[in-house]
Each structure stands twice: as structure tokens, then as C-alpha cells.
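A favour, since you know our C-alpha cells better than I do. Just paste the record in under my message, thanks.
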Amino acid sequence: MPTPTPTTTRTPTATATPTGSSTPTPSTAVGIFSDDFESGDLSRWTTASGLTIQKQEVASGAYAARGTSTGTPTYARKSLSSGQSDLYYRIRFKIISQGSSWVYLLKFRTGTDESLFGMYVSSTGILCSRNDVTGVDAVSGTTVSKGTWHELQVRLQVNGTSSQTQVWYDGAQVPGLSKTESLGISPIGRLQLGESAAGNTYDMAFDAVIADVACIGSCPVPGDPTATPSPTEPTPTATATNTPPPANTPPPTATSQPTATGSPTATDTPAPVDTPVPTSTPTPTATAAATLVIDPTSGPVGSLVAVQGFGFTPDERIGLEWEGTVMAEAVANGSGSFTVLLEVPGAPVSKTGPNTITATGEVSGEIVSARFRVERK
């Protein structure tokens, strides 16, 4: 009779199935707001512009939203019933194609429609975030592959200078984008899906949109699971300690004498020590991987644009030109990166088309250039 009760305790092991919580997600898609677009329209959103509902590019179900643009905005916004200071926002997205400019995936906005924080993919395909309160961009080491469905979940906690952002991409937390931010005190009042700026070229689809006050699905923190497997590994090493008893092996230590003869021969090898001179070749390798990321949307003349460079030669001097006009000089740090703030000049700057910033390194000449657009946020 007592033995059947242990079998009932085995039923909790069925709780392992929650890992398949990705499938219940659509059904649990209540939260504060959700839209899987199965209604065939955008009626759940407060406003929408340029987005369409279609069947060709779908993550699940029969319908999904799609934004295809050669310069016009394609987005939807949802006004929340009450302001939120701590909110999770998850979407599934697929970038079918992207032009030579950034493209926003989502944004958190205040009830008065001021942008607080957004996630975008840079012109080089890197997942980035932008704090619109401080005007600072953050660049991750994550490349977003095109033609594939991905999941993006962002948690935004608004708490003045102690605000927090957490970002998960395809179920894994993105460390470079999960950090303390200064986001003011205005609560989140609206959610944006898609790109609201004009002038960008892209084709992307969205599905399974959910916003809630709790984590949607799984929100792992790096390092937690890996702590448990490591203790189990020391156990086999204990068995390895049984091998030391064969103290018969010390006799072979006599062979260490031949190794002494090997050391003189090693003195002949100093000749190849000249080969380390070619270590200068890594320099072009670093510059070949160089990227330049700039503040995608700046304010009017006089405002600041953040320019971030990665993959340059450590300690290399880099000249920054704005449409051919020298603006500043940067020096790459030991990791080959730099950040510089440039003031938007009166001229030459285009308020309708893209503007180009070029980085020229003293080691290898012109390295990379990037474009941005001047417009109101």
C-alpha cells in the first residue's frame, strides 16, 4: 500500500513537459496583450500603417503580419489599458530581406507616444538596442540570420537610473543587451511592432506577439544550468587518482635525461623565432572584420550621434569623416573598439536621405563606412 504512493510522486516528473511550453504559448496568449494574427486583420492594434496580413510567411497557424517597404513605414502600435513599469514583450520575426540600413523590430513607448527603448537589426545584420531616453545604442555580438524565424523577448523595468533591460534571442539571454539603463520614470503605455521610420528598405514578417507582466515561456539566465554538471565531473577524476599507485612508472623518469639533450636541440629552434615577426599579419585580419555602427535616428542639427566601431587594430588611430568633412579622431582600445559622439552639423547633412560616416585607419587606410538618417524620434 505505501509503495503506490511513490508512484504518485513520479507524476511530478511529468513536469518536465513544461519545456514544451512553446506550444502552449499561443493558447496562453492572454497576458496583457497578444495577437497571433489568426483573426486575419490588425483589429487588436490601436493604430497600424503599412503592415499587411498574409499566409505566405507564417511561423505558426494560418496568418502572420508582414512589412514590405522601399521607404515607407510599416508598423502597428497598441495602447495598454494601464501604464506598466515592468513588462515582457515577445515576438517571433523573420527578416526576408534587408537593404543597406537598419530596421526596427519593436519598441516600448510611453502613454504619450515617446519612445523609451527599441530593438533593431543593424545594416550589417547585428542585433542592437537603443535607449531613446539617453540616446545611446548598444551592440551585441549576435548576428541575425535572414530567411529564418527567430524569437525575441525583451523585459523592460522602468525605474529611473536603476532601470533594467533583459533581452533573449532564440531562448538565450544576450549579455551585451541585458544591463542597467537610465530610462526615466514614465511607465510603458504603448507597444510598437515593426519600423516606424521612413527611408528604409526591407521585407520582414511577424507572428505570435505577446506582452505580459511575467516571463513568456522560458527566460534562462546564463550560467545557472552549467553549475550543476561541473560537480559531477570531479567524481571521475577521483578514479584517476587510483592510477598513481603504480609507482613502478618512476623508473622511466630516467628518460628525462634524453630530454636534457632535447633542450640543446631546442636552442637551434631560436632561429625560427624570427617567424613571430609575421605577427603583423593579424592586423589586416582585424580590419577585415571591422564594423561601424551609428545612432540610426538623430535629432536636429546640434544633437549628438553615437558612433561605435568594432574589429579594428588595437590602439589604432581612426579618422572619422562626415560626408567628406573631418569631424573627429578616435583611438581603438585594447579590444579594437571605440565609441565617439559627433554633433550633427548644419551642413553637409540630409534630412531626407541617408548621410555617410567614414572611418579611416592609419594602419590600413579606409576601413568601413556607415549611414544614418536625421529625423525626429
